[in-house]
Design goal:
- By secondary structure, this protein is of the alpha/beta class.
- The chain has one domain: TIM Barrel (Alpha-Beta Barrel), CATH 3.20.20.
- Strands 1-2-3-4-5-6-7-8 form an 8-stranded parallel beta barrel, surrounded by 7 helices.
- The two termini are 14 Å apart.
- It binds pyridoxine-5'-phosphate.
- Pyridoxine-5'-phosphate binds next to β8 and α10.
């Protein structure tokens, strides 16, 4: 069990989505990363998709440089493809998070099917680990996938909180609570195997608390909601409020000094 400070990774993909709606350079994801750093983010997350629908190769170049200067880690989300592996090996980000990717999806809909692809993924992550990247695998709350992630030698799993958040916003509270309990069990199970546990996807001020309260979770990655809230309150205020909401929930669950 661990109660160390919960890290917040701010995902800036959708700053790029807004920029790309018009082309040009505004709003700039690197500027958002600097603002996130000033607001207390512990890291920046960015997903370079095969279709480059938000973050681009040039963004990754500039982010790597800017975050290096700020001393802030980059969590590079990517599909397990040779193209992305080559890009990651060139930039050597602090962390690589492997996610499933389908062109027709609007966002990352499910977790990676590690159990079905163990051999390929074990070979895929080996050079990334040798290059010093902390590899995490984005998975649904499913013990089979956690065991498979452990077997292939990934040091971190990120639990997909999207289903839990959707159920909350649809008002399906019994199912939401069951999914939340499943996430909690999986966090304990993964931690018991020696894996570092992260969580993310779809989290909001309303849904972050119960997940922040899982003692085994060390990092949350949050993006879309923060960028949306930034329209109303500014990015700095949105990140600070998320940080406070996470920390309050963690302190309440784990006792003073735990956030
Ligand atoms: N974690 C992972 C692995 C993701 O793929 C995403 C979405 O890119 C997030 C966290 C953040 O999700 P959201 O933008 O819904 O907060």
């Amino acid at each position: 069990m661990t109660s160390d400070r919960l890290r917040l990774g701010v995902n800036i993909d959708h700053v790029a989505t807004i920029r790309n709606a018009r082309g040009g350079a505004h709003p700039c994801p690197v500027r958002a990363a600097r603002a996130a750093a000033a607001a207390g983010a512990d890291g920046i997350t960015a997903h370079l998709r095969e279709d480059r629908r938000h973050i681009t190769d040039a963004d990754i170049e500039r982010l790597t440089e800017a975050l290096g200067e700020l001393g802030l880690p980059l969590n590079f989300e990517m599909a397990a493809t040779p193209e992305m592996q080559a890009i990651a090996l060139r930039h050597r980000p602090h962390a690589v998070c492997l996610v499933p990717e389908r062109r027709e999806e609007r966002t990352t809909e499910g977790g990676l099917e590690v159990a079905r692809e163990e051999n390929r993924l074990a070979h895929f992550i080996a050079p990334l680990r040798e290059a010093g990247c902390r590899v995490s695998i984005f998975i649904a709350a499913d013990e089979r996938q956690i065991e498979a992630a452990h077997r292939i030698g990934a040091p971190v799993v990120e639990l997909h909180t999207g289903a839990y958040c959707d159920l909350h916003h649809e008002g399906r509270f019994e199912e939401r609570d069951a999914e939340c309990a499943r996430l909690a069990r999986c966090a304990t199970f993964a931690h018991g195997l020696g894996l570092e546990v992260h969580a993310g996807h779809g989290l909001t001020y309303d849904t972050v608390g119960p997940v922040a309260a899982f003692p085994e979770v060390r990092e949350l990655n949050i993006g879309h909601y923060l960028v949306g809230e930034a329209i109303f309150s500014g990015l700095d205020s949105a990140i600070r409020r998320m940080r406070e909401t996470m920390d309050r929930a963690r302190r309440a669950a784990l006792g003073a000094g735990a956030a």
